[in-house]
Amino acid sequence: MAACGTETSRALSCRDGQGAAVLKLISIFVIFFTSVLGISSPTLLARLFHGKPVYDKAILAIKCFAAGVILSTSLVHVLPDAISALADCQVASRHPWKDFPFSGLVALIGVLAALFVELTATSDADIHNHGNINKGKSNYEAIGSEELEAARKKSAEAEESEEERIRMKQRIVSQVLEIGIIFHSVIIGVTMGMSQNRCTIRPLVAALAFHQIFEGMGLGGCIAQAGFSFGTTAYMWFMFAVTTPMGIVLGMIIFWLTGYDDNNPNALILEGLLGSLSAGILIYMALVDLLALDFFHNRLMNSELWLKKACFAALALGSTAMSILALWA
Asked: Is 125 or 312 the better-scoring residue by pLDDT?
């Protein structure tokens, strides 16, 4: 309890509602701009290199960098913050929060929820693709040259179906990944919006700007590989870019209506639960759908040893860059 008193006195010395509000308004524009910059750069680079020999390899390296960013986001940023929120003395002294590790449980629920959504979506896609193949089958046996032509058509249909299945999988990964990141972005925004501590907000503005650039690059790399239409791509850019600024505005409204700040027990509980759920989703997506899929099941990467080394270096670079940011945000 003494630690709580120390934190409260330190926060009171920096409490300045008017100064905090000015910093929040500045942060809304800065974070929006850096979010757009981060998420759009991989897609624009992919369009620039499209059709060139290095296109597939560049996309693969970008995706591995993205996996490192997302894995670090979940393990170094989101999950520790969620655990810290639920371990705060104002929460941990109450039932049932002191009796059970809820952050780990909710992260597990996030993993299972991501798996369930992906299984459901890919099962529907597989049924659709198998139906299309069955419709294309003929009711007679071909002989001679006709048999050869039928075999070629069947092979082309199977290859096209496999490509469609992979593309569908990439799109599902991108969409589920954005859901997990949006949870995280809302938490960041609401927490900053409710805070009245200018000493905390000032360094956060710069740190979150870089945070959004790297996180945007992570999501943008997956969107680039999924090959969405321009309208869908622009919508996903927009949703990522506005989520944190909208969270800041929402946090300011919550403080104005309720007087709750970011140290209120109810706010800490909500932050801890949403953060744990987001961490579970991001951990699953990074390990299963990004790392395992590319490093163990990608024919292009396994065909060239230097490419695998380059992708691992990109993974390490993304993880390191995002982990260093944990010193400030």
From this structure: 312
Contact 27, 43 (CB under 8 A): no
Name the one residue in this structure whose structure tokens are 């099962």: 123
Radius of gyration for the chain, computed over Cα atoms and rounded to the nearest angstrom = 23
Give the integer Cα–Cα distance in Å for 273 and 183.
10
C-alpha to C-alpha distance for 319 and 64, rounded to whole angstroms: 10
Residues in the chain: 329
278 vs 324: CA distance, rounded Å: 20
Which tens digit of pLDDT belongs to each residue from 214-263?
A: 888 878 888 887 778 888 888 999 999 999 999 999 988 988 888 766 67
DSSP result, 91-144: HHTSTTTTTS-HHHHHHHHHHHHHHHHHHHHHHHHHHHHHHHHHHH--SS---T
Is the pLDDT at 46 greater than 90? The verdict is no
325: closest CA among 211, 213, 202, 244? 211
Q: What 8-state DSSP symbol labels residue 196?
A: -
Tell me the helix, strand and coil percentages in the chain, rounded to 5: 85, 0, 10
Please tell me the least confidently modeled range out of 42-51, 233-242, 287-296: 42-51
DSSP line for 49-69? HTTSTTHHHHHHHHHHHHHHH
Q: Dig out the tokens for 185 from the structure.
A: 């972005």
For residue 179, the cross-strand partners are none
* pLDDT bucket at 5, cuts 50 / 70 / 90: low
Residue 195 DSSP symbol: -
